Amino acid sequence: MNKPSTFLSKTEILDAAEQTLRRYGPDKTSVTDVAKLLGVSHGTLYRHFPSKAALREAVTERWLVEKIIAPLSEIAGSETGSEEPLRQLRKYILKLVELKRFYAEEDPEMFKMYAAVTAEAAELIEDHIDRIVRHLGLIISKGFQSKNIQRINEPETLARSIFHATARFHHPAHAYAWLSPNTGEEFNGLWTLIEQGLSGPHNKGGTSK
Description:
0% strand
């Protein structure tokens, strides 16, 4: 007997969809596969999500919030600590890089779906980027207040520039290159340039070490 749709929550659907996606992969998973796992008709799922694409996007959004944004929030929110903003900024970007690489290797099916959705769902991905930019903006604002970062532009503008400048190291389109032995050295070289630009002439020594 099918499970009554009135007792089917969004969380249950997303849990089942995520489980099915990991089992069959994002290319082969169908709404019917998810419905079978839940013991409902595929029509029931369409009452919650109008299409397979909408369901994929919802699963991806939750995955991004839980696996990427949540741990980054802890770094961005440590404003009460004594950590220097430039160091905090580098720590944040390195954590973003670490998380993307980790899930590319340890959760390949979900990462593959995230990469696909990146090309298909512009609004969802823009929301994801906006969350990261807001985090970076908070840290940069803290740097303005402490004079650790020079005010060469508005926090959000600088934050977005840093995000895009470092995309080579965390955007899924570049995942093929992450295993290169030169990646770490290349990141350090880029960060030195970013740091020198942010710290200005009053802090030429940098904080990367």
